[in-house]
Write a structure and sequence with these properties.
about 290 residues, mainly beta, 6-stranded antiparallel beta sheet, about 15% helix, about 35% strand, DUF1684 domain-containing protein
Length: about 290
């Protein structure tokens, strides 16, 4: 049993047993987890390295910092490279001349390289985009970490996964104006926190069987990012039981940069209580230049 599991059990145990649980070990596990999370966020080609978001249409267009003319049509994104220009595919193959990427699935994408710059070619909200990720982006160099609440086991909540009776999808807004996202909803998560019962609509998580909830709460726009926070939940156990550790509530990329298309929480996923746990509003935001 990990410290996290033990502490979660402790929160539901009697006062006489809670003293046995190691809060210091719980804090160390959280610190290790958050250090790793921040390291991935600040990767030289991570989201903090994004310098722009370009919305492709049928007009060939050249963008600062990356070679070629870019457009999209019914067959997917296309780049036309001039003589002397090239890109490198993920498998190391050189790309010259005209290159069609083919249809890209929603929330999918490929990455090609232009020197040190990683060029993300992706599809978001039904539109094809190009996002350069430059390790020399000044915002990445200035990033010193995300402020957080101190980890506290009081923000662990036991709950249960309530599967949807029939498969359904939900349309949510986006951090990008005018954009919408459609997500499959496998069900809802019901949990008790500080004597109250709540429900949150859940999406499928990154790993098979896991869940993701997007939410806001009474701290949103005050100490935490106004638009959303995200919480990953391990796969339910055989009885549908889940553990929500709000200490691991994190910001999505839109908290840091205008060059993001993050989804907003579904209607109803605003908690009326303040979740004073997890990541707070970033110290600085990368604001897009307006021509």
């Amino acid at each position: 049993m990990t410290t996290l599991d033990a502490t979660a059990t402790a929160t539901a145990a009697t006062p006489a047993t809670t003293a046995k649980f190691d809060r210091a070990a719980f804090a160390r596990e959280w610190e290790d987890w958050h250090r790793d999370h921040e390291a991935r966020r600040a990767d030289p080609h991570g989201f903090l390295a994004v310098t722009a978001i370009h919305w492709l249409d049928e007009t060939p267009t050249r963008y600062d910092g990356i070679p070629g003319n870019w457009w999209t049509d019914a067959t997917g994104p296309v780049v036309e490279l001039d003589d002397g220009e090239s890109l490198v595919a993920a498998d190391g193959t050189g790309i010259t001349g005209r290159h069609a990427f083919g249809p890209i699935v929603e929330r999918g994408g490929v990455v090609v390289r232009a020197g040190d710059v990683a060029v993300e070619v992706a599809r978001r909200g039904g539109r094809d985009i190009v996002r350069p990720r430059d390790p020399s982006n000044p915002y990445l160099a200035r990033f010193t970490g995300t402020p957080t609440y101190l980890p506290n086991p009081r923000w662990l909540a036991r709950g249960r996964f309530v599967p949807a009776e029939t498969a359904r999808e939900v349309t949510v807004g986006s951090a990008a104006e005018g954009l919408q996202h459609v997500y499959e909803v496998p069900g809802e998560v019901e949990f008790e926190l500080r004597g109250e019962t709540f429900r949150l609509v859940a999406f499928n998580g990154h790993a098979p069987g896991t869940l993701t909830v997007l939410f806001t709460d009474a701290t949103s726009g005050l100490t935490t990012y106004a638009a959303n926070r995200s919480l990953e939940i391990d796969a339910p156990d055989a009885d549908g039981g889940v553990l929500l550790d709000f200490n691991r509530a994190v910001n999505l990329p839109c908290a840091y940069t205008d060059h993001a298309t993050c989804p907003l929480p579904p209607a109803g996923n605003r908690l009326p209580v303040g979740i004073e746990a997890g990541e707070k509003t970033p110290i600085e935001r990368d604001v897009a230049d307006i021509a």
